[in-house]
């Protein structure tokens, strides 16, 4: 982030909602157990430098969605709750740019760099990151501040959360985003 002052960089916190805790409690296995703690670190750094933060919430539309408004999985996790003045963007698809005014708000604030974190790496985080890159933003995906879950592929093959996470980062790196760490993002706020 060194070539953009913090006022031109924004933190995008994607879907840090309680539904993922419920998935874990039901036996789904995830990677990166420290991701939420790293998100808290990022929130703290951006807040202490008065840099913009945008909170993204997924609102499910299918009757069995864990993200239905009013349901137990919809609320944000307490650690990542927004503060007064921090916008909350509600999306109904994987990308935070589709059906929302996120791009308009970013352009109006002359924000060039997006630091993206949240859940899940290979769904809403990936889709939002791909679109950010395609829209011309300098996207930075924070590898240790996102996570995903084990999945079964279309041929019945089991894929670990670690492998899915790593492949998603590899797919995005260079073309759509730079892959960074929480420590690296925080260090960029410090004067040279």
Automatic annotation (TrEMBL):
Residues 9-183 form the Isochorismatase-like domain. InterPro entries: Isochorismatase-like_dom (IPR000868), Isochorismatase-like_hydrls (IPR050272), Isochorismatase-like_sf (IPR036380). It holds the Pfam family Isochorismatase. The keyword Hydrolase applies. Keywords: Hydrolase. GO terms for molecular function: hydrolase activity. This is Nicotinamidase-related amidase.
């Amino acid at each position: 982030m060194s070539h953009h002052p913090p006022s031109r960089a924004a933190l995008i916190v994607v879907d840090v909602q309680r539904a993922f805790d419920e998935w874990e409690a039901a036996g789904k296995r995830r990677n990166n157990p420290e991701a939420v703690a790293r998100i808290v670190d990022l929130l703290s750094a951006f807040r202490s430098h008065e840099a913009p933060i945008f909170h993204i919430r997924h609102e499910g539309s299918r009757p069995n969605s864990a993200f239905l408004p009013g349901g137990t999985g919809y609320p944000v996790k307490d650690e990542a709750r927004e503060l007064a003045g921090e916008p909350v963007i509600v999306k109904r698809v994987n990308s935070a740019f589709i059906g929302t005014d996120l791009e308009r708000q970013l352009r109006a604030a002359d924000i060039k760099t997006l630091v993206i974190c949240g859940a899940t790496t290979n769904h809403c985080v990936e889709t939002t990151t791909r679109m950010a890159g395609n829209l011309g933003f300098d996207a930075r995906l924070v590898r240790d501040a996102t996570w995903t879950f084990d999945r079964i592929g279309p041929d019945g093959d089991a894929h670990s959360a670690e492998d899915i996470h790593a492949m998603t980062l590899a797919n995005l790196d260079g073309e759509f985003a730079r892959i960074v760490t929480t420590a690296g993002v925080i260090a960029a706020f410090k004067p040279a």
